């Protein structure tokens, strides 16, 4: 099979590139080793669209973040992704930190970030009453926002698929060879050919890069652990509350998610093993201790889940840790080292890489490209009249499956039967929010498993949490076997 | 069935509490009753509790969960009480207007004069325990596993570790063993089990399943499907002791680490909740701070035996009928507090109107620790003087077993406060004994 472009990795970066490339007339394929899109770094992060003040001026990180942030309103409208510019406060609790705060403001100005100002303690408390009383000053970044990283990634991917991009899931790349006029990519599902290869493999982008390029790179997984609190704690903070950044990143933050659940984290620890996205006692303790530095009365007792994500951190020899974006070998394009602000930058990275690839391959514009996509309706957020009307149209919207998040069977059916639909419990979760509530799947998971089995025509023993060996039930009971 | 738009009593939940409340309300003369049940059948969680041991107090015989439920379902049917199934209540406002949805009837609004909250409880999930490690498939709350095995007919796994010795965990240890699984151990963080003693004997001891007290899970291994857990002993502050870690291979971890009353709807109405039980604060009529809104069963406080759920729910149902018929006033002025002390963690009810109260009022509670040779005291306080009105010796008091006492109206008349305490017979309960002893 010969494609014009093959993208490796269906995280937010790969999916954004796929969607942007779909604007051209080309045969495009995305290879993803997991059972669904959004299974790596994209699924476990702070879910923020950063304003862009903290990246070193002149770097790709700075440029892509600033541009990506500015693109978010339009992208979110097109892809029906929830997005809210709630603003961020970088808080300083010690007079000695003020020069660093001013430096941050200056960086932000150099990066062209609008609506930045340093506010005094009084104003900061006014903006965010939950701040600790010893607040001295804060940098207020009004364009900072929150999104749903699942929905953004799935939105990019679905829209790409709607516009003709082929996604091959459960497909691992094992080797890449240069051929005449392109590359031959060996995968667990056979070989594919491509005129251009785009590396968006997240924490594995070094392995993919090193299959092709002479100058080797190394990506260090930098682990971040989080606590997600019950939606009942909604309103804990109104803004994203940061501490002054350190060398290892932006520190432990407290933010509302787009669904109202407060999110606390992340830690930042470099690890060796790219598969170790596990939480730790030390990490969770650190989240616990540091969350109270900036915000009063964080109700960690209302934690409904903890998780760990791995950032794809890359140290370049010159000491910088910028994104690598561009053609690093003939017809081979890197989007590597995409750590924070990767999510915020994704719309800009997608456009940047796609334009470069289109130019290289001399692709024509696809006049039929449809930029719009609708997410699974979430009835909980709709008014009663609209809910009533929808249930009349489709009675499955009246059958509540996930009681905590009030997700109906209609929503789950939509998640399964749309382009790139859900095939796993986690896939249903990311498209509908079912299982993300306070009972954490206790009541609804058997019901969702049944629906998945029925709709995908699979035995229950093949219904998985998230692909691989992650089956939920292994066999029938003795009595069950007789039925 | 298509429900009407107005009922005198609407009961939220068709489990044991809701069913018993409905039957009692009907027997008290109320005709206009609706039960709203979210599942496709009445009976609630009893339907998946296929073991026996239910109904000894209520029916004088040992029944399975479904059998016990069926007795009440039959009563509901015989009484002609209306119910809707597969219907989820999504909102209740302060005017007692209930919004519910179902596939059959769409979005409906129902006005009620009185509401009985009987939504039951949910299991505490892994997330709230903050156990570090991976998040693979193979970790279930014990009740979810119970549904998979008993209702759906599927086995979650072959080698099992159970964290928490709550009753559902103990029952599932036996159930999984009977289905051919290897249940390696039950780990309990506390130095005592939170489950009924009879379940420890019948579900663990009889099958040689070790109960490891003062142990917890400190790590979860396996990226896709669970491969094993690390167990560690904890010290008196419940902190894992370094060096005691032990890796246990298993493909399934069941959690039986506590039940949380499901009061999201109660909060919407404006019902005040207890920080101890997570259930509504109620008076002796089992009425919340919102007039005409009653609560019973596990939504009020987690019970050990369903028989007591039924008994409590019957009272709630009768009181709701009184209220709906306009025979009960809204006045709270004469209510006094019932206060837990010493080892008593909470009481239900927390308030009582001495004039209005029946000749006997049931007070239910749990203790915070295992107390061999325990004594329960009830005292009344007036003008700063404390007088003991009840003293009951127990062979053992344990957190896993709900206790109840009866307060006689004649004993409490004129009191300003009622104190319920528990301790050893030697008297450890914060001065109560001394005073009570002095007035004996």
Largest sheet: number of strands, sense, barrel closure of chain A: 8 strands, mixed
The biggest sheet of chain B amounts to: 7 strands, mixed
What is the level 1 CATH name of the largest domain in chain A? Alpha Beta
Estimate nothing, just give the exact number of structural domains of chain A: 3
Radius of gyration of chain B: 23 Å
The CATH architecture of the largest domain in chain B can be given as 3-Layer(bba) Sandwich
* Shape, per Cα inertia axes of chain B: globular
The radius of gyration of chain A is 22 Å
- The whole-number mean of residue pLDDT values of chain A reads 95
Q: Tell me, rounded to a whole number, the average pLDDT of chain B.
A: 94
**Which fold name corresponds to the CATH topology of the largest domain in chain B?**
FAD/NAD(P)-binding domain
Largest interface, with Cβ-Cβ < 8 Å?
A: A-B, 63 and 51 residues
Structural class of chain B: alpha/beta
CATH class of the largest domain in chain B: Alpha Beta
Which CATH architecture of the largest domain in chain A? 2-Layer Sandwich
Short description:
The complex is a heterodimer of chains A (483) and B (440). By secondary structure, chain A is of the alpha+beta class.
Written account of the structure:
The complex is a heterodimer of chains A (483) and B (440). Chain A is of the alpha+beta class and 483 residues long. In chain A, 31% of the residues lie in helices and 24% in strands. Chain A folds into three domains: 2-42 and 150-217 and 318-361, 3-Layer(bba) Sandwich (FAD/NAD(P)-binding domain), CATH 3.50.50.60; 83-145 and 220-313, 2-Layer Sandwich (D-Amino Acid Oxidase, Chain A, domain 2); 379-482. Chain A has helices at 12-21, 60-79, 98-110, 121-127, 149-162, 205-212, 281-294, 342-361, 384-393, 409-417, 425-432, 445-456, 478-482, and strands at residues 2-8, 28-31, 48-49, 83-84, 88-92, 116-120, 137-141, 145-147, 166-168, 173-179, 182-187, 190-199, 219-229, 240-243, 253-256, 262-265, 269-270, 303-314, 324-329, 332-336, 400-402, 407-408, 475-476. In chain A, the strands form five sheets. In chain A, strands 1, 2, 9, 10, 11, 12, 19 and 20 form an eight-stranded mixed beta sheet that branches. The termini of chain A are far apart. Chain B folds into three domains: 6-122 and 260-330, 3-Layer(bba) Sandwich (FAD/NAD(P)-binding domain); 125-257, FAD/NAD(P)-binding domain (3-Layer(bba) Sandwich); 337-438, Sandwich (Immunoglobulin-like). Chain B contains ten helices and 28 strands. In chain B, the strands form seven sheets. In chain B, strands 1, 2, 5, 6, 7, 8 and 20 form a seven-stranded mixed beta sheet that branches. Chain B has a five-stranded parallel beta sheet with strand order 10-18-12-13-14. In chain B, helix 6 links the parallel strand 13 (182-188) and strand 14. In chain B, helix 1 (16-27) runs parallel beside helix 3 (65-78), helix 1 (16-27) crosses helix 8 and helix 5 runs parallel beside helix 6. The termini of chain B are far apart. The chains are: A alpha+beta (483), B alpha/beta (440). Chains A and B meet through helix 7, strand 18, helix 9, helix 12 and strand 23 of A and strand 7, helix 4 and strand 11 of B. Strand 23 (475-476) of chain A pairs antiparallel with strand 11 of chain B.
